[in-house]
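Entry for 2IO complex. Fields follow.
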Amino acid sequence: MSNLIEFDVQCADFQRDPYTMYARLHRDDAVLIDPRFGAYFIGGYADVHRILTSPGFTTEPLAKRAEPVMGDRVLAQMKGPEHDAKRKAVLSGLTGRLFRERYGPMIQRISEDLLAPRLALGQLDLVNQFGKEYGVLVTLGVLGLPTDRYKELATWHVGVVDFVTSLSMSDEERRFSLECSRNLIDYLTPIVSHCLATPDEGLISMLCKAAPDGQQMSVSEVVALVLNVLLAATEPADKTLALLFKHLLDNPAQFERVKANRELLGAAIDETLRLTSPVQLIPRQTEVDMQLSGIDIPKGSVIFCLIGAANRDPAVFNSPDTFQIDRQKSSGHLPLGKIAHHLAFGAGMHVCVGAAFSLLQIELTANLLLDKLNDIRFAPGFVYREQGLYTRGPSALCIEFSATGASTPEIVEVTEVAVL
Ligand code: 2IO
């Protein structure tokens, strides 16, 4: 039986470094409870896998966390024929035989355009001078939305994400998030109405036809789906890219191998997602009284799956705190002979619909960066920090490099300087 251990999810130590707590959780075989916050936190791989794949665990927490800022329900709140039909619509836009051809050139162009003015400088903050804008622009491209107001959209997106992912909010922060949500919904409503009336080939029009029985969908239903894609695709993008480069820079021998053999990039991205999962928390609620690892959990309890902990469970992953791109060959096995896979995209009926797309996106951009930037290293004096508990990533990643084919510094207009 596990030990039930009280902890404070909002304490500064945990915010700074959740991974020490995760290691302790595994060592002491613990289920965590934050009585003040009123939730359980579960980090064992088998428990998390069970929570995500078995009946008895609902997505009810999203009614409070997501619905107020999304304007209607998101995919993860649905089930049955409605869930199947809408999920299929999103999935068919984000996967399929031709998705590399459809989205590849767009991702490539956005990455090149953002990188161009930075090349000659020989330095770049991969989060704040590339990744954040890149995340928003690629998502807008996928949704077929115009990019002229992307800076405003990026600000509103942050406000909405804060609401979904925060563990505590001041009244003022809440007001700001709701205002951002209102602005985003007001922006999307006429666009969605137009797609409902005169559908085109784009993803939004595909979502407009996603009702299970051929019924007409309401504007707010489609807007919520669009917001769902917007948030889920944008929020983890800069984090995953920066985390990948952080691990490669920390592991020079593996970095050399990846540079020489780009086919290893997929394994490096996968290992990045396991070791430092950009989405660290997935909330659920228990539908019945139950036991998890021998601990009684009453009906109606809010449970957070600690994805970052499950992905470092030593019962499943050997030397779980190390970055090993060859891991797949050496990692542990689950019962029934299944090979253990990380849970960074979740599992079960709500497993991430954008997984394949996001892997394509990171792979294309990482390849481009490796092509254009030579001799990548951390900038002198750069101090690495991560932020966020729900979604987590580097607050900055300042690198230096020499560029291949860069234009001369004189003709480059630079407005911001990397903050070290
Ligand atoms: C967008 C938290 C970025 C999802 C969410 C309201 C629903 C859902 C998730 C992920 C990542 C986001 N939850 N994606 O945790 O679609």
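NOTE: The two ends are 47 Å apart (CA to CA).
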